[in-house]
Amino acid sequence: MSRGGGAGGYDRHITIFSPDGHLYQVEYAFKAITSAGITSVALKGKDCAVVCTQKKVPDKLLDPSTVTHIFQLTPGIGCVMTGLIADARAQVARARMEAAEWKYKFGYEIPVHMLAKRVANLAQVYTQHAAMRPYGVSMILIGYDDEAGAQVFKCDPAGYFAGYKGTSAGTKGQEAMNHLEKKLKKEPVLSVEETVELAITTLSSVLSIDFKPTDIELGIVTKDDPVFRALSVAEIETHITRIVERD
After folding, report:
1. 86-116 burial, b for 16+ CB within 10 Å, e for fewer?
2. Please, what's the b/e burial string for 9-47 (b: 16 or more CB within 10 A of its CB; e: otherwise)?
3. Res. 229: pLDDT tops 70
Protein backbone atom coordinates (compact mmCIF):
# COMPACT_ATOMS: atom_id res chain seq x y z
CA MET A 1 0.00 0.00 0.00
CA SER A 2 1.40 3.39 -0.98
CA ARG A 3 1.81 5.95 1.79
CA GLY A 4 2.22 8.72 -0.73
CA GLY A 5 -1.13 10.42 -0.37
CA GLY A 6 -2.92 12.44 -3.02
CA ALA A 7 -0.27 15.12 -3.45
CA GLY A 8 2.96 13.17 -3.25
CA GLY A 9 2.76 12.95 0.53
CA TYR A 10 2.84 16.73 0.99
CA ASP A 11 -0.79 16.70 2.14
CA ARG A 12 0.15 14.63 5.21
CA HIS A 13 1.35 17.60 7.30
CA ILE A 14 -0.21 20.98 7.66
CA THR A 15 3.13 22.67 8.34
CA ILE A 16 4.98 21.45 5.23
CA PHE A 17 4.97 23.29 1.91
CA SER A 18 4.96 21.22 -1.27
CA PRO A 19 7.72 22.07 -3.80
CA ASP A 20 5.27 24.19 -5.82
CA GLY A 21 4.36 26.26 -2.76
CA HIS A 22 1.07 24.70 -1.69
CA LEU A 23 -0.19 23.93 1.80
CA TYR A 24 -2.52 21.11 0.86
CA GLN A 25 -4.25 20.76 4.24
CA VAL A 26 -5.29 24.41 4.10
CA GLU A 27 -6.58 23.92 0.56
CA TYR A 28 -8.55 20.88 1.74
CA ALA A 29 -10.16 23.09 4.40
CA PHE A 30 -11.46 25.31 1.57
CA LYS A 31 -12.77 22.17 -0.13
CA ALA A 32 -14.66 21.26 3.07
CA ILE A 33 -16.51 24.59 2.79
CA THR A 34 -17.62 24.02 -0.81
CA SER A 35 -18.55 20.37 -0.26
CA ALA A 36 -20.83 21.11 2.70
CA GLY A 37 -23.66 21.64 0.20
CA ILE A 38 -24.70 25.09 1.47
CA THR A 39 -24.39 28.48 -0.23
CA SER A 40 -24.49 31.79 1.66
CA VAL A 41 -24.54 35.40 0.48
CA ALA A 42 -23.99 38.70 2.28
CA LEU A 43 -24.27 42.26 1.05
CA LYS A 44 -24.69 45.78 2.29
CA GLY A 45 -27.21 48.38 1.24
CA LYS A 46 -27.23 52.11 1.96
CA ASP A 47 -28.13 51.75 5.64
CA CYS A 48 -28.09 48.02 6.28
CA ALA A 49 -26.22 44.75 5.93
CA VAL A 50 -27.81 41.36 5.27
CA VAL A 51 -26.70 37.72 5.41
CA CYS A 52 -28.71 35.00 3.72
CA THR A 53 -28.12 31.25 3.62
CA GLN A 54 -29.86 28.01 2.81
CA LYS A 55 -31.54 26.10 5.60
CA LYS A 56 -31.43 22.36 5.08
CA VAL A 57 -32.97 20.12 7.75
CA PRO A 58 -31.35 16.76 6.97
CA ASP A 59 -33.79 14.62 8.96
CA LYS A 60 -37.58 14.67 9.36
CA LEU A 61 -37.20 13.97 13.08
CA LEU A 62 -35.00 17.01 13.76
CA ASP A 63 -36.46 20.11 15.37
CA PRO A 64 -35.95 22.76 12.60
CA SER A 65 -35.57 25.58 15.15
CA THR A 66 -32.29 24.02 16.35
CA VAL A 67 -30.74 23.90 12.85
CA THR A 68 -29.10 27.20 11.94
CA HIS A 69 -26.04 28.69 10.26
CA ILE A 70 -26.70 32.24 11.48
CA PHE A 71 -25.30 33.32 14.84
CA GLN A 72 -25.25 36.49 16.92
CA LEU A 73 -21.75 37.27 18.23
CA THR A 74 -22.40 40.56 20.04
CA PRO A 75 -25.61 42.61 20.23
CA GLY A 76 -24.63 44.44 17.02
CA ILE A 77 -22.60 41.81 15.12
CA GLY A 78 -23.92 38.64 13.53
CA CYS A 79 -22.44 36.09 11.20
CA VAL A 80 -23.29 33.35 8.76
CA MET A 81 -21.12 30.23 8.88
CA THR A 82 -20.61 28.11 5.78
CA GLY A 83 -18.97 24.69 5.99
CA LEU A 84 -18.71 22.10 8.73
CA ILE A 85 -21.29 23.06 11.35
CA ALA A 86 -19.40 21.60 14.34
CA ASP A 87 -16.31 23.64 13.40
CA ALA A 88 -18.60 26.65 12.93
CA ARG A 89 -19.92 26.40 16.48
CA ALA A 90 -16.40 26.17 17.87
CA GLN A 91 -15.33 29.27 15.92
CA VAL A 92 -18.48 31.16 16.96
CA ALA A 93 -17.83 30.33 20.63
CA ARG A 94 -14.26 31.64 20.30
CA ALA A 95 -15.43 34.82 18.50
CA ARG A 96 -18.00 35.48 21.25
CA MET A 97 -15.29 35.04 23.87
CA GLU A 98 -12.97 37.47 22.07
CA ALA A 99 -15.80 40.01 21.74
CA ALA A 100 -16.68 39.69 25.45
CA GLU A 101 -13.02 40.11 26.41
CA TRP A 102 -12.78 43.30 24.32
CA LYS A 103 -15.91 44.71 26.00
CA TYR A 104 -14.49 43.89 29.45
CA LYS A 105 -11.09 45.40 28.64
CA PHE A 106 -12.13 48.58 26.80
CA GLY A 107 -15.69 49.19 27.97
CA TYR A 108 -17.35 49.29 24.54
CA GLU A 109 -18.48 46.75 21.95
CA ILE A 110 -15.82 45.43 19.56
CA PRO A 111 -16.03 46.94 16.02
CA VAL A 112 -16.77 44.49 13.19
CA HIS A 113 -13.39 44.91 11.51
CA MET A 114 -11.51 44.20 14.75
CA LEU A 115 -13.50 41.02 15.41
CA ALA A 116 -12.93 39.89 11.81
CA LYS A 117 -9.22 40.60 12.22
CA ARG A 118 -9.05 38.65 15.49
CA VAL A 119 -10.89 35.62 14.04
CA ALA A 120 -8.64 35.67 10.97
CA ASN A 121 -5.49 35.93 13.11
CA LEU A 122 -6.56 32.88 15.11
CA ALA A 123 -7.34 30.97 11.90
CA GLN A 124 -3.85 31.81 10.63
CA VAL A 125 -2.25 30.34 13.75
CA TYR A 126 -4.08 27.07 13.04
CA THR A 127 -2.24 26.81 9.70
CA GLN A 128 1.23 26.77 11.27
CA HIS A 129 1.01 24.33 14.17
CA ALA A 130 1.24 20.62 13.49
CA ALA A 131 -0.93 19.81 16.50
CA MET A 132 -3.89 21.77 15.11
CA ARG A 133 -6.02 21.71 12.01
CA PRO A 134 -7.76 24.65 10.34
CA TYR A 135 -11.52 25.04 10.83
CA GLY A 136 -13.39 23.95 7.71
CA VAL A 137 -15.61 27.02 7.76
CA SER A 138 -15.93 30.46 6.21
CA MET A 139 -17.27 33.17 8.52
CA ILE A 140 -19.06 36.19 7.05
CA LEU A 141 -19.64 38.92 9.63
CA ILE A 142 -22.04 41.84 9.38
CA GLY A 143 -22.60 44.83 11.62
CA TYR A 144 -23.44 48.52 11.63
CA ASP A 145 -20.60 50.86 12.58
CA ASP A 146 -21.29 54.36 13.92
CA GLU A 147 -18.54 55.84 11.76
CA ALA A 148 -18.21 53.51 8.76
CA GLY A 149 -21.88 52.51 8.36
CA ALA A 150 -22.89 49.02 7.23
CA GLN A 151 -20.06 46.49 7.26
CA VAL A 152 -19.51 43.06 5.68
CA PHE A 153 -16.33 41.06 6.38
CA LYS A 154 -15.33 37.54 5.40
CA CYS A 155 -12.71 35.34 7.10
CA ASP A 156 -11.41 32.10 5.61
CA PRO A 157 -9.45 29.09 6.98
CA ALA A 158 -6.13 30.48 5.68
CA GLY A 159 -6.48 33.52 7.95
CA TYR A 160 -7.31 36.00 5.20
CA PHE A 161 -10.00 38.61 5.81
CA ALA A 162 -11.37 41.59 3.91
CA GLY A 163 -14.34 43.91 3.77
CA TYR A 164 -16.89 43.53 0.97
CA LYS A 165 -19.82 45.31 -0.67
CA GLY A 166 -21.26 41.88 -1.34
CA THR A 167 -19.79 38.39 -1.06
CA SER A 168 -20.63 34.73 -0.97
CA ALA A 169 -19.32 31.40 0.30
CA GLY A 170 -20.08 27.73 -0.15
CA THR A 171 -20.95 25.36 -2.95
CA LYS A 172 -22.09 27.94 -5.51
CA GLY A 173 -20.05 30.78 -4.01
CA GLN A 174 -18.34 31.81 -7.24
CA GLU A 175 -21.59 31.90 -9.23
CA ALA A 176 -23.23 34.00 -6.52
CA MET A 177 -20.25 36.40 -6.54
CA ASN A 178 -20.56 36.81 -10.31
CA HIS A 179 -24.29 37.51 -9.92
CA LEU A 180 -23.68 40.12 -7.19
CA GLU A 181 -20.90 41.71 -9.22
CA LYS A 182 -23.33 42.33 -12.09
CA LYS A 183 -26.04 43.66 -9.77
CA LEU A 184 -23.72 45.93 -7.77
CA LYS A 185 -21.61 47.17 -10.71
CA LYS A 186 -23.51 50.45 -11.05
CA GLU A 187 -23.35 50.96 -7.26
CA PRO A 188 -27.11 51.12 -6.70
CA VAL A 189 -28.45 52.78 -3.54
CA LEU A 190 -30.35 49.90 -1.97
CA SER A 191 -33.05 50.32 0.65
CA VAL A 192 -33.43 47.71 3.41
CA GLU A 193 -36.16 45.85 1.48
CA GLU A 194 -34.17 45.92 -1.77
CA THR A 195 -31.05 44.62 -0.02
CA VAL A 196 -32.92 41.70 1.57
CA GLU A 197 -34.63 40.89 -1.72
CA LEU A 198 -31.38 41.05 -3.72
CA ALA A 199 -29.85 38.57 -1.25
CA ILE A 200 -32.80 36.20 -1.70
CA THR A 201 -32.91 36.51 -5.51
CA THR A 202 -29.12 36.00 -5.78
CA LEU A 203 -29.35 32.75 -3.84
CA SER A 204 -32.47 31.71 -5.69
CA SER A 205 -31.06 32.32 -9.18
CA VAL A 206 -27.64 30.67 -8.66
CA LEU A 207 -29.24 27.58 -7.11
CA SER A 208 -32.21 27.60 -9.53
CA ILE A 209 -34.62 27.03 -6.65
CA ASP A 210 -37.87 28.80 -5.82
CA PHE A 211 -37.56 29.12 -2.06
CA LYS A 212 -40.20 28.41 0.52
CA PRO A 213 -39.86 30.65 3.61
CA THR A 214 -38.53 27.69 5.63
CA ASP A 215 -35.75 26.97 3.07
CA ILE A 216 -33.64 30.04 3.89
CA GLU A 217 -32.39 32.04 6.85
CA LEU A 218 -31.71 35.76 6.93
CA GLY A 219 -29.89 37.98 9.40
CA ILE A 220 -29.96 41.76 9.30
CA VAL A 221 -28.60 44.93 10.91
CA THR A 222 -29.87 48.39 9.97
CA LYS A 223 -29.06 52.00 10.83
CA ASP A 224 -32.42 52.43 12.60
CA ASP A 225 -32.05 49.12 14.45
CA PRO A 226 -28.32 48.31 14.76
CA VAL A 227 -29.05 45.16 16.80
CA PHE A 228 -28.40 42.00 14.79
CA ARG A 229 -31.43 39.75 14.44
CA ALA A 230 -32.58 36.83 12.35
CA LEU A 231 -35.76 37.39 10.33
CA SER A 232 -38.79 35.31 11.29
CA VAL A 233 -40.42 32.89 8.82
CA ALA A 234 -43.34 35.33 8.45
CA GLU A 235 -41.00 38.20 7.52
CA ILE A 236 -39.14 36.02 5.00
CA GLU A 237 -42.49 34.99 3.52
CA THR A 238 -43.43 38.67 3.06
CA HIS A 239 -40.19 39.30 1.13
CA ILE A 240 -40.58 36.18 -1.04
CA THR A 241 -44.19 37.18 -1.84
CA ARG A 242 -42.98 40.65 -2.91
CA ILE A 243 -40.32 39.12 -5.16
CA VAL A 244 -42.87 36.80 -6.80
CA GLU A 245 -45.34 39.67 -7.32
CA ARG A 246 -42.60 41.90 -8.76
CA ASP A 247 -41.51 39.26 -11.26
Report:
1. ebbeebbeebbebbeebeeeeeebbbbbebb
2. ebbeebeeeeeeeebbbbebbbebbbebebbbbbbbbeb
3. yes
Q: Residue type for 207, please?
A: L
- For 80, counting Cβ atoms within 10 Å of its Cβ (0-12 exposed, 13-18 middle, 19+ buried), the class is buried
When pLDDT is cut at 50, 70 and 90, the band that residue 2 belongs to is: very low
CA–CA gap between residue 140 and residue 121 (Å, rounded): 15
Position 8 confidence tier, pLDDT thresholds 50, 70, 90? confident
Contact 98, 118 (CB under 8 A): yes
Q: Which residues contact 185 (CB under 8 A, 6 or more apart)?
A: none
Q: Structure pTM?
A: 0.94
DSSP code for 105: H
- Sign, CA torsion 188/142/72/107: negative
Residues 36-45 pLDDT 10s:
999 999 999 9
Length of the chain: 247
